[in-house]
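CORE FACILITY INTAKE
Project code: CF-77B
Contact: R.S. (postdoc)
Sample description: multi-component assembly, two entities in total
Requested service: structural model of the whole complex
Turnaround: standard
Below are the sequence entries exactly as provided by the requester. Do not edit them.
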Amino acid sequence: MRYLLRRLGFYLITAWAAITINFLIPRLMPGDPVDLMVARMNGQIDPDAIESMKKSFGLTGGSIWSQYWDYLGNLLHGELGRSITFYPTHVSSVIGGALPWTIGLVGIATVISYLIGTSLGVVAAWRRGTWLDSILPTTTFLQAVPYFWVALALVMVFGVSLSWLPVSGAYSLDVTTGFNGAFVGSVLYHAILPAITIVVASIADRVMGMRNVMVTTLGEDYVTMAEAKGLTSRRVMWRYAARNAILPNITSFSLSLGFVVGGSVLTEIVFSYPGVGSVLLKAVENEDFPLMQGIFLIISLAVLAANLLADIAYVALDPRTRQEA
Amino acid sequence: MAGILRSPKIVAGLLILAFFVVLAVFGPLLVGADPTKTSGVGLAGPSAAHWLGTTQSGQDVLAQVVYGARISMGVGVLSAVIATALSIVVGLVGGYVGGVVDEVLSLITNIFLVLPALPLVIVLAGYLPSRGVTSVAAVIAVTGWAWGARVLRAQTLTLRGRDYVQAAKAGGERPWRIVFAEILPVEFPVIATSFLATVLAAILAEAGLSFLGLANLSTVSWGTMLYFAQNNQALLVGAWWWFIPPGLCIALIGAGLGLLNFGIDEIANPRLRTVLPRRARRARRAEVAS
């Protein structure tokens, strides 16, 4: 319990840090984003939009402290300002529309990558010194492949050359949106390539992480003992070794979540997938600073929440963390 | 030293990296041509005149790959140098000084470890007034130092209590001299591995930023090549020679750096070595049984 409370405290501080970084970036960077914006639009910008930008930055005059308080107060009310690109839509509703797509895609792809990668890691560690060691150069290569390049290659092969799968969007435009068979089918069909991209580009970390922990576990006495008792190797491998090796792997997994999320931003852009990644690019291209910052904040908070969940899972699975208090 | 060169992983990694360093340094002399020079034949496949074909506007892809190596690797190394310097200062000072200073530095390190790096880089780059090579490298470094700092702090903690450090302390050495002249050199192997990993992360980040059009698009890097390939529908017309080489180069450099790191890890932690008694033991057992 104490462990969890300490972690919770850490995530709260980190969330506060993310919020504060978000507040400080426009102030530390040279030039006032609002003035920049106004200058670029040659005065053709709606006064309301200027006001909304100033508000979302907390550039409401007064000392930096009172600006900070205004900014925190706005956040508490879920007020992230209005998007410039989608004016007058609120930043929060733009993000709200994009978030389910990203969470669905990244969530499912991450689970698949974790299941396959972890199993491969267990087997690779168990069969060291066999042909399976050739998995090592492959994983080093895969660990270094840029996500968006994998996406481009898949689009080329399965989308353009073979025309098996759609190469952009999240569903085809000729189905009615809503919870009906045709729509759900179309969504799944469109998610195949982006999901494969995320799995391919992130699986190597899982394989290597699991393999290395598993190798250490295989050296433990209780594994030798289990082997000496004459248990089947499958039983020793999964029940004795893998079960214990998986715990540290959960922690390394939660740390790599940030990378999966960052990578999926690029993946979404290649596939024009309507998630937060595509919206982030649109925001940056249009110098839509309120939207940009809102997205960074939401992505950070989502990663923190996922990390917290991983910590809870860790405590639930490892009795030692519970005894600590 | 001889032991290091006996590891096939280290040798393979070094060879791959050496190839790319030579390519970046001397390559432009060989391909000669200006990578942005256009010619009449756009989107031509590989041929004797253009080994890797041409882009939409008839630029030579091979020349772009070769010149791109300079920018991509340059940004990677530059930001890794900045990030490593940061991680050395934060990790060593925190680990050696301890107390409140350490608590604060560790907290900052852990925060930067958890925050998603690429979205932060994208937002920072979005605010950059000019996107030169150095400013892009600096932005990437800001998000890339935390892992190294954490590892170095752990190392410093174990070194802090060693006799020779205590002796230096008792001898009245100044703290900064102990940290940077006594502790730092011992940590060199750790710094080297974390530097290599940071170079890869920075090359990937630069490629990602350029691919989004957020770096300087007038310079040729592997990332900007991919940006122009994507934006000129290279995929839809099947111009694989335009986007396969730059991505492959990034992945190969990464594989080289990864192999080198593996090799070093295996020397440090013999259990990770692939040649293993388990199978040999089993074979022996089978022999005895028969």
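Facility notes:
- The longest helix of chain B spans residues 61-97.
- The radius of gyration of chain B is 23 Å.
Invoice: internal transfer
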